[in-house]
Design a protein that fits this description.
Elements lengths: L12 E2 L6 E2 L4 E5 L2 E7 L6 E7 L4 H8 L1
The chain binds zinc ion.
Zinc ion binds next to loops.
Length: 66
């Protein structure tokens, strides 16, 4: 169960090209100790990726929260 996953998503990330805020990533991928997010700017069309690193694996954190 990953019902609360949307709460983990970053929001309002500024576009790397034009600086306008992007409400939410269009795609993300969870990996061991990291999550990659793909952002697409609706204003200029620019796409870029950010990666969040965690000290513990995501699965461990979710297991504690469940
Ligand atoms: Zn932009």
């Amino acid at each position: 169960m990953v019902a609360a996953i949307s709460d983990d998503l970053p929001h309002q990330n500024p576009c790397a090209q034009c600086g306008r805020l992007i409400a939410a990533p269009v795609w993300f991928e969870n990996g061991p100790r990291r999550t990659a997010y793909l952002w697409q700017c609706v204003h200029c069309g620019y796409q870029f990726e950010t990666v969040a690193f965690f000290r513990e694996a995501n699965d461990e954190l979710r297991a504690h929260a469940a």
